[in-house]
Structure formats: structure tokens, C-alpha cells
Specification:
about 15% strand; Aspartate Aminotransferase, domain 2; single chain; binds 4'-deoxy-4'-aminopyridoxal-5'-phosphate; alpha/beta; seven-stranded mixed sheet; Aspartate Aminotransferase, domain 1
């Protein structure tokens, strides 16, 4: 038995992997879903059910469109300012890590109005600014936040209440991991490859009233309205990734929906943070305690050599892909939806044993 702590693409529920394998396995006289037209009946049913189950499980209100796109969160960094910042107006950005910096960079390249409304760069992105720490523009087109900072292991546990300013949320690494207060959100997006399936599908949630902001100079494939008006079938959608997304949604449903998944995620992360906190300083958490992520647990050991040994020995013990991001080093354990509690317990036990042998 191995446990895959990869930051993404990441672990799938084991049963989902089996279902995917069965769905594409070679059966003469049969046509698999990934060989079928996106305009055909078989894929049409998958597409419609994925939309429907996503809306129901995530409690997405009727005034928001759900879009199935490609291009990753990275393309959203550009599409959000391109579509949502009108001439003479400006957008706020909260900088909580390098993904947020990349999002801001696209607004700069497009030459649209932008402001930094808060940043934790001066504390090495060890935390997420609280709402009180933000310097917000009440007239902003949106305020962009990163709800979970995959590299640093920090998470916004509260979606700020910005009154009339809609939040634009990069939810790449905590998509479908907890309920979301949609009334505060104008647009949210994330790739499926961490919590909700495989790479290739980017899920976007957008308040319908924001679809009117686009300019006539925006190319057709870069407009949200193109996909909203065609049920995300303007061109070929990523059929395999949508199929896998549906299987993961059904799995979430079987777990008891998002409240159950969120509560399991809390228990899983608590187990690993406990191992950090009870190590007498052998492991030092990277994130400030109030900003600790339930998705990516990051910590350091006393030097880089020992960190390397930790990661290598863990790998041999079946605890895979624990190396921290190259920009922060140390250890990063990604505990997305599909990581079972047993994986977190195995990691916590390994951590205690490693500390005993190397303390
Ligand atoms: N934002 C965050 C918070 C991420 O973790 C990632 C990917 N690790 C991205 C954006 C980029 O996503 P993609 O590779 O799907 O474009």
C-alpha cells in the first residue's frame, strides 16, 4: 500500500481509479467514452450530470453559471482581468503567494487598472492577511484572492465579506473541499487535478450579471459568454477530464457531500499538524497557525540534508511525493479530498519514528 501526497496532479479515490480503468478498458464491440463525439448522447449525459451534480453538491446558486474550460487556472489569470475590468476601472489583488503574483502579472500585461490590496510577501507568505489588514478599494471591479496557497501551505479560512465588491477566487487547490459562501463571490475557478479528478478541466463559476462586462475586442474563445451561452460546448470540451470529474462528484456524494468531506479534511490535517506540534521542535510548521492549510501541510526540519533524508526514507516506506516546493524546500504533504485518514496516520507515525531516530 502506498499513499500519494503529490501536490497535483494528485491522488484519486481508489474506487474512482478502478471505474476509470473499467470505462476505458478494451472491450471489442464497444466504444469508450473518450472515443465518443462530444455532441453525442453518451457524452451529453456525462456532461449534463456533471453540471447538475456539481451545482447540487456545491450549492451553486441559480444566478451563477458553471463553465467547463481548459487552460488551467493559469489561463484564468488572464481571462479574469480581460473580461471583468472595464476601461477606466480597477481590480484589487491580495498577494499571498507566487500564484497570486502570477495572477496580478496578467492584469499588468493586459494594461487594465489594478491595485495590491494586501500582501504577506514581507513575512515570506507564511500567512493570509485578515479582512481587517486589507486596504480595499470599495469601487473595485473585483478583489482577487487565492483561497489556498499550495506552495506555502496557507489557506483563507474565511472568505472576506467585501460588501458590493465581488471576490474573484483562485480555488485551484481547495476546489470542492468545503462549502463556499457564493453570495460573496463573483467568479471562482480551479483545475480539477487536485481535488476533483484529472488535469485538463478547469471549472469556472461566474455570476451571470458579470457576463455583461466583456468588451467587443475580446477574442471569442477568451470570453466567458462564449461558454455560458453554449453550455460549455462551444468547441470540444475535455471529455475525459469531465468524465473523471463526474466520477469524483459521485464519490463526494457517497461520502455525504461537501460538509462530510470538509469535516474529514479537517480531521486528516489535524492528525499531521499534531505530529508537527508534538515533535518538540523537530518539525517546524511553515505557516502561521491561524492560516494553516487543510490541503497542504508544510514544515521544515533542522537542515536541508535531513529534509532530503526524510523525504527519501518516507518514499521507501510508501509515503510518496513529500518534497516541498523548490522555492521553500522542506516537506509538503498534500491531503486533498481523496487522501484517506489512514494515509495521514501512516505519515504521522512515520514522522514520530523518524524524529526518534534522528532527534
Ligand atoms: N493557482 C494555484 C493556487 C495552484 O496551486 C496552481 C497549480 N498548482 C495554479 C494556480 C496553476 O494551475 P494550472 O496548472 O492548472 O494552470
Amino acid at each position: 500500500m502506498v499513499y500519494n501526497f503529490s501536490p497535483g496532479p494528485a491522488v484519486l479515490p481508489f474506487g474512482v481509479r478502478e471505474e476509470i480503468a473499467a470505462a476505458v478498458s478494451c472491450s471489442p464491440g464497444d466504444v469508450s467514452i473518450i472515443e465518443s463525439s462530444h455532441r453525442g448522447k453518451a457524452y451529453g449525459a456525462v456532461h449534463a450530470e456533471a453540471m447538475e451534480v456539481c451545482r447540487r453538491l456545491y450549492a451553486v446558486p441559480d444566478n451563477m453559471a458553471i463553465l467547463f474550460l481548459q487552460g488551467g487556472a493559469t489561463l484564468q489569470f488572464a481571462m479574469v482581468p480581460q473580461n471583468l475590468v472595464r476601461p477606466g476601472r480597477s481590480a484589487d489583488y491580495v498577494i499571498t503567494g507566487s500564484w497570486a503574483q502570477k495572477a496580478l502579472a496578467e492584469a499588468r500585461i493586459l494594461g487594465v487598472g489594478h491595485r495590491v490590496a494586501g500582501s504577506s510577501e514581507d513575512r515570506r507568505f507564511t500567512g493570509v492577511p485578515t479582512q481587517q489588514e486589507l486596504d480595499l478599494d470599495g469601487g473595485a471591479e473585483y478583489a482577487h484572492i487565492t483561497t489556498n496557497n499550495t506552495i506555502y501551505g496557507t489557506q483563507a479560512h474565511v472568505f472576506p465579506d467585501l460588501g458590493g465588491v465581488p471576490i474573484a477566487a483562485d480555488m485551484s487547490s481547495d476546489l470542492l473541499s468545503r462549502p463556499v459562501p457564493w453570495d460573496r463571490i463573483g467568479i471562482a475557478y480551479g483545475g480539477a487535478q487536485k481535488n476533483a479528478g484529472v488535469a485538463g478541466l478547469t471549472v469556472v463559476f461566474i455570476r451571470e450579471e458579470l457576463l455583461d462586462r466583456e468588451s467587443s475586442s475580446t477574442p471569442t474563445p477568451l470570453r466567458y459568454s462564449t461558454y455560458a451561452n453554449s453550455d460549455s460546448l462551444y468547441n470540444t470540451p475535455p471529455v475525459f477530464a469531465v468524465f473523471c470529474f463526474l466520477l469524483v462528484l459521485r464519490w463526494i456524494d457517497r461520502q455525504g457531500g461537501l460538509p462530510a468531506v470538509a469535516s474529514a479534511n479537517g480531521a486528516k490535517a489535524a492528525r499531521v499538524y499534531e505530529a508537527v506540534d508534538q515533535s518538540g521542535g523537530f518539525y517546524r510548521g511553515y505557516a502561521d497557525v491561524p492560516s494553516r492549510s487543510l490541503m497542504n501541510v508544510t514544515y521544515n526540519l533542522r537542515n536541508a540534508d535531513l529534509e532530503l533524508r526524510f523525504v527519501q526514507e518516507a518514499q521507501t516506506a510508501g509515503l510518496l511525493n513529500l518534497a516541498g516546493h523548490r522555492s521553500v524546500g522542506g516537506v509538503r504533504a498534500s491531503l486533498y479530498n481523496a487522501m484517506p485518514l489512514e494515509g495521514c496516520e501512516a505519515l504521522a507515525d512515520f514522522m514520530a519514528d523518524f524524529a526518534r531516530r534522528n532527534g
